[in-house]
Design brief:
The complex is a heterodimer of chains A (577) and B (84). With 577 residues, chain A is α/β, with parallel strands linked by helices. Chain A contains 15 helices and 27 strands. In chain A, strand 13 and strand 14 form a beta hairpin. In chain A, helix 2 packs across helix 3 and helix 9 packs parallel to helix 10. The N terminus and C terminus of chain A are likely disordered. Chain B has 84 residues and is mainly alpha-helical. Chain B has a single domain, classed as Non-ribosomal Peptide Synthetase Peptidyl Carrier Protein, Chain A (Orthogonal Bundle). The N and C termini of chain B lie far apart (29 Å). Classes of the chains: A alpha/beta (577), B mainly alpha (84).
Chain lengths: 577, 84
């Protein structure tokens, strides 16, 4: 599925630092919203001066061209200026997650130790409030130094003092999503990032009037690339808040989009339901979302039902259907591989397919919506320029249109390797393509992502994607949306996998009479997917393990369930609940 | 002497944990002892905002700030803003 190149004017910049230094100084850049009447705003000029002061300070601390620097700071302008300051010096910044009250301390410690050990950083910059008890989890090499962020000297590094910029030099390291301890560092050059941003800005027709809203963490590619580096390079304004504040007050997202007239936003699929089920627009007088050009669902897979629910909730408050867009993105490609709405189309495509053939034969056969096995799938759009997708079987052989296989990607912004991990690089980059581990198909130039290869459940020859089972569980009113996990468990007696579901109820009282809920979920799965579920476990709220990115950690949740229910591991039969 | 506000939070936590025979005082460790997990803290923080009549910037709150009911109110005083 090739795409033709349409270069944008961003190519006039050789490096990200050059793009930042070229920004009009009086133009608004970042607004960090921290609550009613409390926000911090900087222009590009103020931001750049702050970044130059950080650069001077870092240089004084011995940071040099090519050195890695870890930043562990809360979401906000100081984190962004520290990042930009390190880049101005030609050092290589990497943002790691800042501990919050939502993150399990033990899991955070484990992740921090693993990731910081792999980065072997020269400097580790910690926020002033970074807890002392977590310091021991930061892995230090012989040359590492710990620094606390805070007041900086007034001296600044001026452009004339900056090292000669090399476009192919590593600009920064971002980490792939996943369990923090196993996150992989992706080193990206200035040139690769600029190529990606040119394609993305072109696909979205980004213009100077655009303003981005974001609650996405900067240690994740969606937050870092789409909501910090893109506006920095394109000289756009951004309105941000911390992920924790958003979780506490999801309505603040709509409030800020409305108040600041934001036009572009990226959110993961779960956020569509999370917001629409919690936020009554009537609680926000004057709410008006008509400034939104694109609210981009950036998940694997994107769900039509989630986007429909969001649209229904806010369509009377200015939200336009054509604003609901989708993309397929990953840290390994800097960010986006596909984007919907390209070539004048109004949004991601939907197709209705025969569910039986889809699950059994791994092929797409379009049917009418009233077909007894109708299954609605939504695309993630078309490839960006210079991004090329192949769908392959396990042997790496190309599959035809409409056949389901692993998504392989080649692009001009692809990673060259995982940082300090040649073993993982060799697994992921083969024959000039990045093997994504995602499963999907192409049809009429659109890419449909249907799940993760490693999560696939094979039930008597049928390929079941856990996301589909989980979506059905979320549909039950007693189940907390976004809090169900499905996985496969090998059944030796039958020689195939069984489906096991664990789901959180919204109210613990419901655990006193679980059978009707379990039964309803089983019936719905059989009805919609044509496979039976071996066991449904209902759990109290907050039982399921989440990753730092807020996604359900399927493997860890699976282990937790098996440890609590050893009967699941008994050969073949186990929990005949 | 325990305030009504602290008592309201303790009752809310007791309802959240639902463990027979469990008694909680304003100094009972909750997070570090494993009595509540970090995800429960979102609900507790919301309740704290309601009871203390403050808006608490969640991004400034660490698990240790929520370890006991006493610390929760100290945190609310330290980082919270009166609700408008």
């Amino acid at each position: 599925m090739p795409a033709t190149a349409t270069p944008l004017s961003l190519t006039r910049f050789r490096t990200l630092s050059e793009a930042l230094l070229a920004a009009p100084p009086n133009q608004p850049f970042a607004t960090m919203w921290q609550g009613e009447g409390e926000s911090e705003s900087v222009t590009f000029g103020e931001f750049t001066n702050w970044a130059k002061a950080e650069a001077a300070y870092f240089r004084g601390q011995g940071l040099q061209y090519g050195d890695t620097v870890i930043l562990i700071m809360p979401q906000g302008v100081p984190l962004m200026t520290a990042f930009a300051g390190a880049m101005l010096l030609g050092a290589v910044p990497a943002i790691l997650a800042y501990p919050t009250f939502k993150v399990d301390p033990a899991k955070y410690r484990f992740g921090l130790a693993g990731v910081s050990a792999n980065l072997r950083a020269k400097l580790i910059v910690l926020d002033e409030s970074f807890p002392e008890e977590l310091l021991q989890c930061v892995s230090l090499t012989g040359q590492s130094r710990l620094l606390r962020s805070g007041a900086r000297p007034k001296s600044r590094v001026e452009p004339a003092d900056l090292p000669e910029a090399d476009p192919d030099h590593v600009a920064f390291i971002q980490h792939s999503a996943g369990t923090t301890g196993l996150q992989k560092g992706v080193a990206l050059s200035h040139a690769a990032v600029l190529r990606q941003l040119s394609h993305l800005a072109s696909a979205l027709s980004v213009g100077p009037q655009d303003r981005i809203y974001s609650w996405l963490p900067l240690y994740h590619d969606m937050g870092l690339i789409a909501c910090f580096i893109l506006p920095m390079v394109c000289h756009l304004a951004i309105v941000m808040q911390s992920p924790s504040d958003w979780v506490m007050h999801p309505g603040s997202m709509l409030q800020l989009i409305s108040e600041y007239r934001c036009s572009l936003t990226w959110i993961p699929n779960f956020a569509y339901q999370f917001v629409s089920r919690r936020v009554d627009p009537e609680d926000y007088p004057g709410l008006n979302l008509d400034s939104l050009r694109a609210l981009i669902n950036c998940s694997e897979p994107v769900r039509a039902s989630s986007m429909d629910e969001f649209f229904e909730a806010y369509k009377n408050h200015g939200l336009r259907r054509e604003a609901l867009q989708a993309c397929y993105a990953m840290a390994e490609n800097v960010f986006a591989v596909t984007q919907s709405g390209i070539n004048g189309k109004s949004g991601p495509c939907r197709i209705t397919v025969d569910g039986d053939k889809f699950y059994s034969d791994r092929i797409v056969v379009p049917v009418r919506a009233d077909h007894s096995r109708a299954l609605c799938l939504m695309s993630s759009g078309q490839c960006l320029p210079e991004n090329h997708v192949r769908i392959a079987n396990a042997n790496g052989e190309d599959l035809p249109e409409g056949a389901v296989g692993e998504i392989l990607i080649r692009s001009d912004s692809m990673l060259e390797g995982y940082y300090n991990r040649p073993d993982l690089t060799a697994q992921a980059l083969r024959d000039g393509f990045y093997w994504s581990g995602d499963v999907g198909f192409c049809l009429d130039r659109e890419l449909y992502v249907v799940g993760r290869k490693k999560d696939l459940i094979i039930v008597a020859g049928k390929n079941i994607y856990p996301q589909d089972v989980e979506e059905i569980a979320f549909g039950h009113p007693a189940i907390h949306d976004g809090r169900a996990v499905a996985f496969g468990l090998y059944n030796r007696d039958l020689g195939t996998e069984d489906i096991v579901v664990v789901a959180e109820v919204t109210d613990e009282e419901q655990l006193k009479n679980p059978l009707p809920i379990e039964s309803a979920i089983r019936n719905a799965v059989v009805g919609e997917l044509g496979v039976s579920v071996r066991a449904v476990y209902l759990k109290p709220p907050r039982w399921i393990v989440k990753s730092t990115a807020g996604k359900s950690a399927r493997a860890t949740t699976r282990e937790k369930l098996i440890s609590e229910h050893p009967e699941l591991q008994r050969d073949g039969n186990g929990a005949n609940r | 002497m325990m305030t009504d506000q602290k008592q309201q939070i303790i009752e809310f936590i007791m309802k959240t944990i639902v463990r027979e025979g469990l008694q909680i005082s304003e100094d009972t460790p909750l997070v570090s002892s494993g009595l509540i997990d970090s995800f429960a803290l979102v609900d507790i923080l919301n309740k704290l905002e309601e009871v203390a009549k403050m808006r608490i910037p969640a991004g400034k709150v660490q698990p240790k700030d929520m370890d006991t009911v006493r610390r929760m109110f100290e945190t609310a005083q330290r980082v919270g803003k009166p609700r408008t």
